[in-house]
Amino acid sequence: MNLSDEQRLDWLQLIRSDNIGPSTFRTLVNKFGGARAALEALPPLMKRATGAKAVRLALRADCEREMEATLRFGARLIALGEPDYPSALREIDAPPPLLCVKGELSVLTRPMVAIVGARNASAAGLAFTERLTHELSAAEYVIASGLARGVDQRAHRAALRTGTVAVLAGGLDRIYPPEHVGLAEEICGHGALISEMPLGWEPRGRDFPRRNRIVSGLAMGIVVVEAARKSGSLITSRFANEQGREVFAVPGSPLDPRAEGTNDLLRQGATLCTSGADVIDALAPTASGFAPLRTTLFEDDSNQPTSEPLWDETDLFGDPAPPRSQEGLQLDEESVPAMSPPVVIAAEPIDARSLEERLADLLGPAPVGLDDLVRASGASAGQVQAVLLDLELQGRANRRGNLVTS
């Protein structure tokens, strides 16, 4: 089933209205039989909600401009239940009613595995991410991630030619971090960028957990490569667990803070991941009958989505369900600047001092090959060799043959 342009505009106007999030949207569509009927029924209902939770309908003209801008940008708005909408994502609690998508739509209908991890990943973690991505891509899995620095970025790059999906916290024209603008353009060649937010939307702290639930919802399983405690990757793994996805964790040294989160996941029952085969074997039973699309929208209203503290939603028909708690987890990504156009940040020349700190950050208790360290640092082999010698003299690095540790 595909929506007409007018129906798509109705959906857009409803979901862009203040204090109407995915859960309220679904409730309204189920109760009134469609978005147009819900829009017509809302004026008297809005009197029940006052103050900060008051429902304010989006202007029709604004939604028309958004649709036109989306098409000019080369993207599409795909509605929940349409053939191109990811079938696994539609099964989660509070799926996005509309996805803004740019790129190769066919990747959205293929089985996916999500790979997430630390932004300040070690060189060993980045090397493992690349190897894992190649193994999963060879098994015909699309790689999903959040376009963040570190593990996300390496996973996307390793899957550029085989298929990758990047989920954005802001609009598709507001790439964050801004230095990934070029990577985002490359992804569109054989993969896709997706977001539930409108063009022009600058990502805020609370938008990153919203993005994380989509990353996990797209995938049959999620692999956490490196994660400190209270990291965004652990939020994604929590969503994955709630969504019934397989959670994999890569073990790390107990001496490395970047492995504390993944080691905790293993203690809590996550599946051990030391290679792509661990993931492929565990997902094989599910992959053989991967999530077929339903034939009708919202066919079962008996299992309503659980409200999450991610939107300002108004319950118009009774008390809302208790929110899921994200207590103890760091919801914000990084400090995100307010409204500013996306820019490409040019790479600065690497001086010896900045390279020294970069290499020190990349090193950890786990041995890493010199070639992997050179690739992760972005410097030449000669520069890395020279700075490593200084780090060794300072007692901050240990080299045995071609392997280096902190």
Description of the structure:
The structure is a single chain. By secondary structure, the chain is of the alpha/beta class. Among the domains are: 184 residues, Rossmann fold (3-Layer(aba) Sandwich), CATH 3.40.50; 54 residues, Arc Repressor Mutant, subunit A, CATH 1.10.10.10. Helix content is 38%, strand content 11%. Helix 5 runs parallel beside helix 6. It is elongated, with a radius of gyration of 22 Å. About 12% of the residues have low confidence.
Number of strands: 12
How much of the polypeptide forms β-strand, as a percent range? 5-15%
Shape: elongated
CATH architecture of the domain at 104-287: 3-Layer(aba) Sandwich
Average pLDDT = 82
- Output the number of helix runs: 14
Q: Indicate the structural class.
A: alpha/beta
* Poorly predicted ranges: 290-308, 319-349
First-last Cα distance: 56 Å
CATH topology of the domain at 104-287: Rossmann fold
